[in-house]
Design brief:
Metallo-beta-lactamase, Chain A; 6-stranded mixed sheet; about 210 residues; mainly beta; globular; 5-stranded mixed sheet
Length: about 210
Amino acid sequence: MKIVTLVENTCGHEGCIAEHGLSVYIETKKHKLLLDMGQTDAVVKNAEILGIDLSAVNTVILSHGHYYHSGGILPFSHINNTAQIIMQKKAADPHYNGERYIGIDKAILDLPNVRLIDGDMKIDDELFLFSGITGRRCYPQGNRKLSRMENGQKVPDDFAHEQFLVINQNGKHWLLSGCSHNGSTPFKYVHGQVIQAAEYRQKAAVISH
């Protein structure tokens, strides 16, 4: 398996653009995929510098509905309009940091290859998505400023729009997370009911942003 960070808060390769956000390129035996897309077209520019052909990507996973993880989707769609883009339905809801809108660009929802899901999803024998994390282990204090809209009013964000990617490869299970806004709770779920339901029972190797 190959994993390359395309966008992150720091610049790890000369000429690449650093920005607040995340985008990770992953190659498995069956897939060329992206986890998140940063906040601008930096993902496209950095991929070109690093020699990664984004037109060959077949799957995009959006970890949650914030602009600094989804902003590169529209620039990406100009060079690749066939890769399935999978996000939770609630990722499309409005999200705020105080009074500032931090949700996704609504134009993303008009893309024909966007797939909105509700809950867990087994993509194939390599890729599995799970959501519904409600714990508060190592809960980030910055979350207190984050909210979502419910019945026309802002309420504290419960991060039901967040999902996590499990990759089954070479006898191991790799758990990848965008922000883990609900803390480190997802990592104990690797041996929990969610993963067991998909028959993911082996010891996991964990990568988290």
